[in-house]
Amino acid sequence: MDQKTVLITGCSSGIGLSLAVHIANDEKKRFMVYATMRNLSKGEALVEAAGRTLGKTLEIKQMDVCDENSIKACVDSIPERRIDILISNAGVGLIGPIECQSIEEMKAVMDTNFFGMVRLLKEILPDMKKRKSGHIVVISSVMGIQGILFNDIYAASKFAVEGFCESLAVQALRFNLNITLIEPGPVVTEFERKVFEEGLKTDLSKADKVTADMFTNIYLKNYKQIFDTFGQTAEDIAEHTFKIITVESPPFRHQTNSLYTPMTTLKYADPNGDLPIDIFYKMVFEHDKVFNASLNFLKLLRWRSRKSFTLDKPKA
Ligand SMILES: NC(=O)C1=CN([C@@H]2O[C@H](COP(=O)(O)OP(=O)(O)OC[C@H]3O[C@@H](n4cnc5c(N)ncnc54)[C@H](OP(=O)(O)O)[C@@H]3O)[C@@H](O)[C@H]2O)C=CC1
Ligand SMILES: CC1=C(/C=C/C(C)=C/C=C/C(C)=C/C=O)C(C)(C)CCC1
């Protein structure tokens, strides 16, 4: 059986690192993983986690998704440029009031999260079309379908990713290609730490008092608890994604966090779009005192989405 090649971006930490190691450890050795990162000097954690798979089913390569030349050089270095499964994972977060963020900072988020994926596809899609085979997996977010307070730019970048992929999916089908958007809720990784630390450092002098107070005393104050309550591990996301790449008919969208599903379901329950906004408003402002209680309630709820797609049917 031929090994499938998997290229993953952003493997220096978090979801990318876990994904690379999880796939490279496949018992049946079905995959050759090219785990890429923009800065190879950050490769130590991956080298350690990769263990004996390094040089066998896992190889580390340089790739900066904001640099077309680095993408091309990396793809050219892969035998026959053959990538069967592309996992676009590299991404950055940004929280805070937009009054306190520069356009440059915002552009950097779009450049990594959205244009990073577009650059990657421009390089890889034509080969996949020629071969009439391939699976494009994009680590999106629940924020690719639903905006969250003080995540305006980050959510916009993930909405852009989703709009792009939804548009491309029909064309892809004509070439027998699959596209899947993985939509995690909060995941405890470097992302969480970096975003929180940057958030704490935000210069709020350009924001009015109400906004500054809302960001500091509601958003940042509850941030850690939200990750503690809902947070998945990078390994959880790797397990979900592994199932997605080994299933016979992969879905277009896949949410990984059943605790978060009640929130995203609100979006589809009201075509006017007011329901999630009203409920989020009430959760944040009117029920501040019961905010913790509602988080705990959601944790207990263990909602199971009734999806027709099941992950229990791996490829033969
Ligand atoms: N953590 C969370 O709560 C959630 C995360 N996601 C998404 O998951 C993905 C992975 O994030 P996560 O693992 O949590 O966070 P991490 O911060 O742990 O990992 C992000 C990775 O992206 C890399 N990266 C950033 N910019 C570039 C670039 N220009 N070129 C190549 N690599 C780059 C980072 O490299 P470096 O070390 O050099 O900075 C790092 O390897 C992101 O797309 C994120 O939006 C989705 C839902 C929830
Ligand atoms: C649950 C919830 C909130 C916060 C959600 C957060 C913070 C989600 C983070 C998701 C991440 C980090 C995704 C990454 O892509 C609010 C709006 C405070 C109140 C309403 C309920």
TrEMBL record:
Principal subcellular localization: membrane
Subcellular location: Membrane
Name under which the protein is recorded: Retinol dehydrogenase
Active site: 154 (proton acceptor)
Keyword Oxidoreductase: yes
Residues annotated to bind NADP(+): 10-38, 64, 158
Binding of substrate, residues: 141
Molecular function GO terms recorded: all-trans-retinol dehydrogenase (NADP+) activity; estradiol 17-beta-dehydrogenase [NAD(P)+] activity
Reaction(s) the record says it catalyses: all-trans-retinol + NADP(+) = all-trans-retinal + NADPH + H(+)
Similarity remark: Belongs to the short-chain dehydrogenases/reductases (SDR) family.
Function: Retinol dehydrogenase with a clear preference for NADP. Converts all-trans-retinal to all-trans-retinol. May play a role in the regeneration of visual pigment at high light intensity.
Key words of the record: Lipid metabolism, Membrane, NADP, Oxidoreductase, Sensory transduction
Gene Ontology BP term (one): estrogen biosynthetic process
EC numbers on record: 1.1.1.300
InterPro entries registered for this protein in UniProt: 17beta_DH, NAD(P)-bd_dom_sf, Sc_DH/Rdtase_CS, SDR_fam
One GO cellular component, as annotated: membrane
